[in-house]
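Reopening this ticket.

The earlier resolution said the output was attached, but the attachment link was broken on my side. Pasting everything inline this time so it's all in one place.
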Amino acid sequence: MAPHPLLSSESRTSSIRRLLELYPGLADEPSSEWSTILDNAQMMDVPAETALATSGSDCTSFMLLLDGTVRVYQHADDGREMTLYRIEPGDVCLMSLNSLINDRPFRANAKSETEINMILLSADDFHKAMKISDAFRTLILKSLVDTVCTMVQTTYDTAFEPLDMRLACLLGRLFERAGSDSLDITHQELSQELGTSREVISRLLKKLEQQECIVLRRGKILIGENKQMPGSN
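Inline output:
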């Protein structure tokens, strides 16, 4: 199913209101040119599991995410995937910035993990906003620094933290985010998060199950009798 524009004026007004809630600095931008850029922007709903960009594709617009989650990831030569980062409401996409500012193809893959709602600025309007809006430039720079710091931490964890510790920490975060004792997630999906093979993840999960930290079910992981993950505080 392809993305489709939100055509009603009510939906457009709601999207602009949501934009200013997430990026409050933009509400103080006085420039009439900025208002024109917003008037030209495209409002879109996109279903879950929609490919938004592929490695090597041209980047023709800039996304401001209003609702949902986007996963940005890379394919390895052996077919494995690794998550680089996620975009959530209030974030901006580092790869899009690289493509638009340096006029380069998109260097990763992006997919909507959930149904998303977003505002798209054309490449021309993105460059115009960078020139005329102090608030927009501040948003871009702040988000750029935040994303780079997150990716540096991920690189550090990958290089220095044992894989079993990284898996336990990932599960802890996922359980906390879900607010539940049950996760609907496959071994393959976990392997893509950590950039390793499904077989390695399955072996490590079995070890955690033997330690009674988790209980494995088909397509699910439950918290076990020993609720303390190895290495957690």
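Reporter confirms the inline version is readable. The chain has a mean pLDDT of 85. The chain has two domains: 7-159, 162-223.
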